[in-house]
Amino acid sequence: MSIKLRLSFRRHASAALLAATALLPAHGTQAATSNWAQNDGGRMRIIALPATADGTVQGALQIEPTRGWITYWKEPGQAGIPPQVVVSPGNGITLEKMDFPVPSLFDAGGIKDLGYDHAVTLPFTLKVADPSAPLKIHASAFIGLCRNICIPFQADFEVDLTRANGLPLEENLILDEARRKLPEKPSDDFSVTHYMVANGREKLSLALRLPEGVEKPQIFVATPGGRVLFDQASPRRIEGLYVVDMPFGKHPPGESATTDKHWDILVIAGNRAMETKLAFD
């Protein structure tokens, strides 16, 4: 894949959104599932379940890259663009969160990306102001699909939940499977025990409690500015903990290693993965 092209794709994502071609509107024809929108790099759609009594709607963005293509995690890494979903607020609907299954690491010519080279479902949670009112979800999704070139892909979706009849079995099964693929939360045997930004904000120092038998995990840290830390330095064991430094490297123009927000950390250890946030004062 062209490094220059992929870096340009990330840098000019907003412009690419306006210029994107081969975009298909996808109007719902099923009770809880939109039509598929498709381009050369793959296809995507939205599914949703009826609102619960408290106004919660569980849904997901399904992405199916064409064979040989990839799409991206919440922070792509050194190239690419993260999936984005925007919900029209006209019906009193807000997007509360979107979750991401464990990604794979791709290294093309020294450019490291995090993403998926297979079908992936990204669960999300919506909140509805009036769950008793007829509900239609109008949403726009914007993703990146890459192979030898990168294609920005936008589509508009409609899901009419007022026509949902009975138990939406297919959608429930899809969402249940997607949730099983999400990283686990911190636990007694798998957690971040200590963290700090050290050496004048040149590196992030971590101490991790890892599952038994794991020697060296994969660690990815996503900062508020869109940077992802990949590299590990000076790994060692101290009192049963895995202690490691993650250098920030050279900061892009206009970016600094701030610690004024929450950072996301994903740790992959064997067949388990754990995700949490690092909160800085």
For the record, the count of structural domains works out to: 2
Examine the secondary-structure arrangement and name the CATH architecture of the largest domain: Sandwich
CATH fold-type name of the largest domain: Immunoglobulin-like
What's the name of the CATH homologous superfamily of the largest domain? Thiol:disulfide interchange protein DsbD, N-terminal domain
Using the CA coordinates, give the radius of gyration: 20 Å
In terms of quaternary structure, the protein is single chain
Distance between the termini: 40 Å
- If helices are DSSP runs of H or I spanning 4 or more residues, what is the number of helices? 3
H/E element string? HHEEEEEEEEEEEHEEEEEEEE
Structural class: mainly beta
Mean pLDDT: 85
Domain Thiol:disulfide interchange protein DsbD N-terminal: 53-158
Organism: Rhizobium straminoryzae
InterPro entries: DsbDN (IPR028250)
Protein name: Cytochrome C biogenesis protein
What would your notes on this structure say?
- It holds the Pfam family DsbD_N.
- This is Cytochrome C biogenesis protein.
- A hairpin with a 4-residue loop joins strand 12 and strand 13.
- The chain is built from three helices and 19 strands.
- The relative contact order is 0.16.
- The protein has 281 residues and is mostly beta strands.
- 10% of the residues lie in helices and 46% in strands.
- The two termini are 40 Å apart.
